[in-house]
Structures are given as structure tokens and as C-alpha cells.
């Protein structure tokens, strides 16, 4: 059994190792190793369009994850208080947001927005007093909204599960002690669901950062990192892409370990404080 | 305050739910309605949409029968392979691995998620291309074996991409298992295999169901892996969909296919939930 | 044609011309020429005293180009950026259909793109491209262009697109790996199923893939006849399991010898043959495509001044020559032809004999919009 497990780990990491290996390739080819060199890292980080795509992805992921975390938490709290009929409707819509394939969301959003813009833009232009009326077009907002939809549904699901597991007696005790509802929320409920919110945020960030197919349709003239990588694969990859991928991997590893470290710190502090 | 407690409560609830509701309405319901409208329309002569009301797009669905067949065969098959490969790993991690190693090993399963799927799949294009594995096979005397751009390549890519997603729920489920149950079973004279089939497997079912359902449903809508490892020859529904919008510019037919895909996904989800309810015996089902 | 002034100008004359410019009665080019300022700046510009681009601020810092694989010398864009300060983002596509789909969906942000001859009338009809303001492209000279290749860029006497280069679609064969002779499209499809099993590629769009299948059956490249299309579809679906891939980006696969035979454009044929002499480029004896590519500016362009600036830069013979040497395409401009090295003009891949060209057909606009051809291609790909 150990052999099988080892083989699986090898299977999982061999391609990653290859990617990192070729990022140090001295030659132009991403398939023939000809020597060791850091040149591609230099090229990657001085490529304005690559950096722009990276920054776009980071920005979009952060904003959509943050929005998803906030709106999702609010929704989770709301659903707990709803009557059974509204709850079923909401549950169904949220399940749909998670389960509907990204390619459908991407195309449907593109089609719907194209239709909406074709109506709104002339209307705005006709009543706009100035010379250059604002033009609604696909851009950051459309990507953030499309990514955030899925993420928000996931956050809602995670936070709801956590809320369901909370003890009602603590909340009641807090109310008995004359705390305002907002106070109860801030001091009792929020700290307990915070880990779930954070987990949801991280998941949302990962999803948005890595998404290709939704961004491909609704990005307009912007480029995200996955879009850039996909286009490069079509153009014929140079190790520049490998350099970027390896850097992203290292950055995310650092993030994971930092998060782990902070969690452990917090746990120790909480444990110490509770005594 | 003139407002009654009940009304105020409703207002607060409405206020809390409003952002999510608006988001869902604007970016889920509206786009889907747009798709529905387009799916009963007609293709404009130069491509795009022409208002109409006809079911000819849905009647034309068999034209993509192979794409549907590919998806409906390879997606569950891929999920099954993930299960077969992933379950032993989850079992080992949850039950056999030493506790101090466990955290590291589990993290190592999750880390591949943090490398772009695109780049990892591209690495497979190299491994399965003529400079990779086939080259090695050629050296040991098995010449001319083609691996890239076949359904097999897509299958490998699928398993590779979704394996962590299958392992995690099963691991969590197995980790919650009370070890004493296993000990008790052994004490009562059961052989290891009987213990596994009688105790471990049933108790891990929630995780297995979650993993399988999740992977299958996500696979139904897959686009990237068939695109990169299929060489334009292996089409999933997702690929057919993108092609209809980007090459044929046939928005109505594409919308019809999209609507059908959503229906397929919902049906699969419903089946999965039915099975889960039957297994658990109740309607409240644990996810892990 | 505006005459350049070479005698000194009086203050009154200068002011008069300037007022005409301000009122918009004359173009900037006319003003510069007539006042002698053009001559002055040309001299100064050549000596590097200051940049020729009087309106550098308007150009912005970025622009976006949509083009085809392996079609440009990267140095060209670097030089353009050095001269104007505008960075060029290059987006690569493998088919006209995809470019059209993106423009139809809106919001592409392209400032310049490369459509093929048969698409221009459709783009104009859909209002996706505008007539070009030729005053902004002073380095383009219609008199030096070969009308055989450039007439489709002009509709009703107005220029919608300016020619980039022409070329052909033929068969690239790795003669080191494939011994069977491949001289026609009929043989292409036959060898793909026999000796070349699992090693042949076709393009990812309808014009050439369906077109060459039709040609191999003896029909016209541009046919939209239902019966002929059905036969072509039958052939394509029969061949599909034997193909290596359906992809317009075939160079990586040919270079890695994953594929040994592919439908190929002139520029790729020339580049492959230059780096791997065993790869031959053959024009089908039963027919095929002859084409010309153009530059056009979308109506939705975000940075039109930069689009025009790059267009003008690329129309300049000195810059165009470098492009042609790098990408191996034949030129439509006699000025460029005069500057090309003999090894390129005598290259039979780049400049085939007239006899080989006689059976080739230009793509027809109807194939772009015909739903039947689009659907046959889509069915072939999802089969």
C-alpha cells in the first residue's frame, strides 16, 4: 500500500517538477533541457504584459474573494432567519451557482451583458450632456461579478454549515445578559464563524486566480494570468511561462505556510486567553 | 419605534440577503434567462442571434451526439478512476500514516491545487508527446506508441487534475472514524477485509459520495483538459459549446447546448442526492 | 499630390496655411508639406534631433494587435515601441472565424488586426471596420501594390484594409519521416490514413480544411453546394481518427516531429524549411488556396491613433522588409520587392512559379457566413 501511495505522490508531483525544472532551462525550448540559467525569470518579470496579467489576476481575485466573503456571510446569516419557502428558493439558486459549469456561466454572462450594453449604451449616450458619454463595456467589473458569484455561493454554504453547528445556548445567554443583537453578533457569533469565512475567502481567491474559462469570455480587453498562459501555450511556449508558474507556486506555498503559522499562533493565544 | 419586532426582523433579514439576492438575480438568473431566449432563436446570417421562436436548435442536438457521449462516458469514468486511485491514498493518510507525518502529507495533496492547472496540464502535453514517455518506450523497444491527443490522454489529464478533489472528502470522512470500532471488529474475529467492507467502507460513504458527485459534476463542464490534451479531436460538451460561439458563431444552437448541459448537470446532481439519501436513510446528509 | 515647398515662406503665407489647418480645410500633411515644415522636420528627424511623431501624447502607452501565429518579427515591435513609446500587446489567433466572433461579441480592445481577404466585405457590412483615413498612413502607396492581391481591401473605391502580404496554403511534409510522395490534396488525405497514420494535421477552421477536402474530391475550394459539402464531411470524418490534431498552430508539433504532415501556410512553410530542410512545402496539384492578408482597424478600437501609427510604421518599406525576411511571406508591394535579398525572392516556397499558382483559388466571402460550412466544420470537430 505504501508503494501505491508513493506512486500517487510521484504522479502528482512529476509534472510540477518538470515545470520547475524547465524554468531554469538555458535554451528556448520548453521541451529540451540544454543548460542551467535564471534568464527566463528575468525575462518573465520584465515582460510588461505578463506582469500586467499577473497584477490583474491578483486584483480580481482579491476583490472578488473579499466581496464573496462579505456577501456570502451576510447571506448565510439571512438564510438562517428565513422561512422555509424563501430558504428553499435561495438554496436552489446557490446550488445552481456552484454546480453550473464555468463555461456556461462565462458564455451566458457574455451574452446577457452584450445584450444589456447594446441597449444601455445608446440610451445613456442620447441623454448624456457632454461630449463623451460613458460606455459600459466588459472589464474588471464583469470578471469580478462572474467569479464572485460562484465564490459567494461557496462561502454561504461553508458559513451556514458552521452556523448550524454553533451552540444556540451561547447566543441565548448573550441575549439574556442584555447584549444588543449587533453586540451578540460581533462578540459571540463572528469570532466563531471567522475561520469558516477565512477558509471561504481563501477558496474564493484560489478559484478566481486560477480560473480561465469564465475570464476568457467576460474579460473584454483585459487579460488575466490564466488567459495569458493559455495564449502562450497556443503560440509555442518558452520557459518564460514555466518561470511564472514556478514563482506562483513558491508564492502560494509561502502563503499557505504563513497562514498555517498564523492559525497556530492564534490557537495558542486563544487557548492561553481562555484559561 | 413604531415598527413591530417581527417586521423589523424581516427587514433585517431582507437587508442581509439583499446583496446576495441581487447578485444571484443579475449574474445567474438573468444570464440563464438570456440563454433560454437565445436557445429558441435563430442564427443570424453572419453569425450571432436573430429573434425567433423555434425549437429547431434543440431538435438539432444529435448533431453533437459524440460530444455528449464523450462527456457522459469519460466524466464518470474519470471520476471512478479518481476514486479507485484516491481511496487507498485517503485510507493510508487517515488510518495508516503516523500522526506526525499526516499534516505534511495532507498538505502535499493540496499543494498541486496552487499550481495553475493550465501549466500542469501543459506539462502533460510534453510528457505524453513524442519527446516524453513515447520516447522512453521507444528506447526499450516499443516504438510508435501515440499517447497525446487521444481520449486516453484526456483521461490521464482528468485524473491528474481532479485527484486531490476526490482524496480530500474521503480523507476527512475516514479521519472522523472512531478507531475503536475497527478494534472492536477485529476483537470479534473479523478478518481485515471483512472489517474494511463491513465497517470502514460504509462509514466513509458520505465522503465517497461527496467526492464522486463533485468530481463528476465538475467534469461534465470541463473545457481545458480536453482542449489541451485532446488536440482538437476529443470534444466534451464544453468544447463543443465554445466552438459554437467562437467559430460557428451560432449563438442560438450554442445556447441550446448550454441549457441542455445545465439540465444534465442538475439531473446528475439529483441522482447523486437520491443515492445519498437512500444510503443515509434520512434526508439530512452529512457532506463528510 | 501635395508639392513639397523648398523656397522660404513668408509669415503671412504661414499664418494663412495655419488657419486653414485649424479650420480643418486641409490635412496636417498638406500643411506640413506646403509650409516646408515637413522638409525641415524630415531633415531634423533623420539626424535624430527630435522624434518625427508630433503627436506622441495622443498615442498613449499601450496598444493591442490581433494577428496570426509566427507572423511577425518581435524586433519590429520593439523598434516601434522605442520610436513611439507605445507598447504592443500581440494576440495570436488561428482562424478568421474566431477573430470575427470576438469582434461581434464586442469589447476586444484591439487597435489593429489582420483579416484575410475573404472576410473584409463581411467586416465592412457588419460595421466592424471603418474606412481608413489614408492621410494617417503616408507611407502607404496604392500605386506600388499588386492589384491582383489587394483589390479586396477596397470596397466601392474606399480603403477598408491595407495589404500586409500574400501567400498560399499548401502541404508541409517531413520527407525524412514520410517516404510516400505527397503532391496533391488527394494524396494528402490518403497518406494521412496510411503511412502518415496519426501524424497528419489539419487547420482549425472551415475555409482551408473543408476547402482542401473539397479540392481533393475534385470540387471547388469555395463550394457551398450541399451535396459536395456532404461528401467533404464524409471524407473528413473518415480521416479524423487518423489525424494527429486539428490545430492551426502546427509549427510546434512539426518541429517536435509529433506531426509529419500538415496543412500549412507559406510563412510557416518557409520558416520550417529554413530550420529543418527535410520539411518540404508543396502546393497541391489539384488546387488549394491563394490568399492575401490585410491590416484593418476595428471601429471599437480603444487607441486608434496608435493603430494608425503602427499601420504606418508597418507600411514603410524599410520596416516591411525586415518583417518579410523574418516571416518568409511574399510581398504585394513592389518597393519592398526591390529591397528583398535574392535568396528570398528566388525561394520557390515564398515565390512559387505562376504555373503552380494557376490552380489555386482565393477564398470567397460566402464561406465565412455560410451556416452550412460552419456546421460541417463543427460537426467534424465534435465527431
Describe this structure in words.
The complex is a heterotrimer of chains A (275), B (288) and C (383). Chain A is mainly alpha-helical. Chain A has a single domain, classed as MetI-like fold (Orthogonal Bundle), CATH 1.10.3720.10. Chain A has helices spanning 2-23, 39-46, 48-81, 84-99, 102-127, 140-164, 168-176, 181-210, 213-218, 225-235, 239-274. In chain A, 40% of the residues are buried. The model of chain A has no long low-confidence stretch (mean pLDDT 83). By secondary structure, chain B is mainly α. Chain B has a domain at 68-116 and 162-280: MetI-like fold (Orthogonal Bundle). A two-stranded antiparallel sheet of chain B has the order 1-2. The mean pLDDT of chain B is 85. Chain C has 383 residues and is α/β, with parallel strands linked by helices. Chain C folds into three domains: 1-50, no CATH class; 52-165 and 292-342, D-Maltodextrin-Binding Protein, domain 2, CATH 3.40.190.10; 167-291 and 344-382, D-Maltodextrin-Binding Protein, domain 2. In chain C, helix 8 (185-193) packs across helix 9 and helix 10 runs parallel beside helix 19 (371-382). At the A-B interface, helix 1, helix 3, helix 4, helix 5 and helix 6 of A face helix 1, helix 3, helix 4, helix 5 and helix 7 of B.
